Amino acid sequence: MRLILTANSSSAGALKHAGRADLVIPIERRFVWGPPPADAELVAYLAPRTTQKPGAHWLDHVGRPIITDIGTTDVGLVDLFRRYEAVELWMETEPSAQLVLIWLLDHLHSHSQPLNDIILRHVDSTLVDEEADHRPKWTFPGVEITSDHLETATRAWHAYREPTPQAWFNLLKSDLSILPQLRRCVLELLEELPGRTTGLGASEMRILELISAGYEHPSEVFPHYRQRFQRRVFDYWEVGALLEGLALAPVRAVSGLAEWPFTIEMHNQKSRLDRYKASRLSLTPLGKAILGQAEDFSRHNPIHRWWGGTELTNNRLWRWDPTLVAP
Questions:
Q1: Gyration radius of the chain over CA positions
Q2: pLDDT of residue 138
């Protein structure tokens, strides 16, 4: 019996259809957006069900077929691992998936009881876009997870949750090769800190670049156009919030957004969604100046967002230059 864990349901579906395991479960937590969950919340999330509220247990977020295969909604992650002869982690290269990986490895590190061998697959391409007939031929190398994997992951996970980005930045000074995608993840997340001269992160700057290049409708500057958008940290909903921040700020960098807020409720109302899609975006004078490295968004607008465990505000604005710049 083989169990595979991955970081999103689309990848899980591809692996299941490829016949790579008896059970494939996606762990769809995202840690690239919003305030960090408390340690106790994360421990309870993966533990056996006791008093967790609805939505606070990992099996609250999987489909009914998976629950049917498991036979319960109450088991903890580690206890489920012990039911299977083989357990594999297939985490893709995007930063969100790599954060899930180091979180899960940190969770395993906290358990003193030995587990059966767990294999880490070194996935180095997307699992979703592969042609169906190629999937059975996937040959990503796998290695047995050792204490070195667990210790590196724990160090990185705790660094990301620190109240400043310094420990995360310092990971670049160490050997991270045992987790082959981690160094790239560290850099990509650092690039989402506000730029030293612009006050905007890499994804926000990419939105401005695309609008400047003539992509005027919101959907044209979203990350589902992977080759065009280029940045890999944020998903559809998160980039929608970034665009809204640029377009609705007291001093706007983008004009022309015709509908908001960017919520499920807006998406469920066809007239509102149509207005949103028909928006014709353009750069304001501030947006053009920021794109030309001549202005700083944070000088004109309030900043309040989270980057890992770091709360970014105008008075506490860690920046990227491309080196870490303290407030």
A1: 21
A2: 80
Rounded Cα distance, 250 and 300, in Å: 8
99: number of Cβ within 10 Å: 24
Q: How many CB atoms lie within 10 A of CB 41?
A: 11
pLDDT band at 288 (very low <50, low <70, confident <90, very high): very high
Judge contact between 21 and 15, C-beta under 8 A: yes
Question: How far apart (Å, rounded) are the C-alpha atoms in residues 268 and 162?
Answer: 37
C-alpha–C-alpha distance, residues 166 and 326, integer Å: 9
Instruction: Tell which residue, 81, 143, 90, has the closest CA to residue 116.
Output: 81
pLDDT at 77: 96
Q: Report percent pLDDT > 90 for the chain.
A: 91
User: How many other C-beta atoms lie within 10 A of the C-beta of residue 219?
Assistant: 13
The answer to whether 235 touches 7, Cβ cutoff 8 Å, is no
CATH 3.40.50 fits 2-185, yes or no: yes
Structure tokens at 229: 């958008």
> How far is it, in rounded angstroms, from Cα 101 to Cα 109?
12
Q: Is it the case that residue 255 has pLDDT exceeding 80?
A: yes
Contacts of residue 75, defined as CB under 8 A and 6 or more positions apart, other chains included, come to 48, 49, 59
The whole-angstrom separation of Cα 264 and Cα 199 is 29
Give 136's pLDDT tier (boundaries 50, 70, 90): low
147-160 and 95-109 helices, crossing angle to 10°: 120
| Cβ(8)–Cβ(97) below 8 Å | yes
Return the domain boundaries, the chain. 2-185, 202-300
* Global pTM value: 0.96
